[in-house]
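Reopening this one. Same input as before:
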Amino acid sequence: MIRLYFHPTPNPAKIALLLEELGIPFEVVPVDTSKGEQHEPAFRAINPNGKVPAIVDTDGPGGQPARVFDSTAILLYLAEKSGRFLGTPADRPELLSWLLFIASGLGPFSGQAVHFQYAAPEGLAYAVNRYRREAERHYQVLEDHMAGRDWMVGQGYTIADISAWGWLDRASRVMKGAEDPLAPYPNLKRWFQAVEARPAVARARLVGTGHAFKKVNDEETRRALFPSNYPPAN
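Same output, byte for byte:
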């Protein structure tokens, strides 16, 4: 059994999609990051970095429970355990390259673009421009790569597609003010629509919907999400 520590944000959504694609049983453990539950000792014992997603595999290596944190690590762990969505052995260099491009580029820069466009104080035009333009640059890298291709790596759907989908699904947030945020990237839009058409996507969107996650953006939420912005309590 897989326990998925989940909040409805891009990185946990990737893991929900892979689990639905694999069709293996999993239990959703809500972690309400707006309430600061990611900082509680019980969760920090699973992910010392205090971020979602994380999983516990109750039947890990040697039959022992295993924790895995960071979305890219989880994607690799589950795909390797199941032997699915990894492409061919010859695809391995490309698969790792695109997974790390998403983990170190597309994801963080998209996240910072969202932060500075929606959550940061006014008067930070340089930061807003910096992260928005870098997000656009990463989109263009993918746009160019997807020309004449159906999937990101090799000839089939892999965890690279699943990983990219998690953030491209939030393009309307990243590209604030754009009526059709993927319109400037037709190859990327075609690819995204192909992923969206997979039945597992609809199931993944239902993961966690039975839990009432906090949606109010108040002082508690800001302190929970951005604790480094506040001095430590005495």
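So the earlier flakiness isn't reproducible anymore. For the record, The chain has a mean pLDDT of 96.
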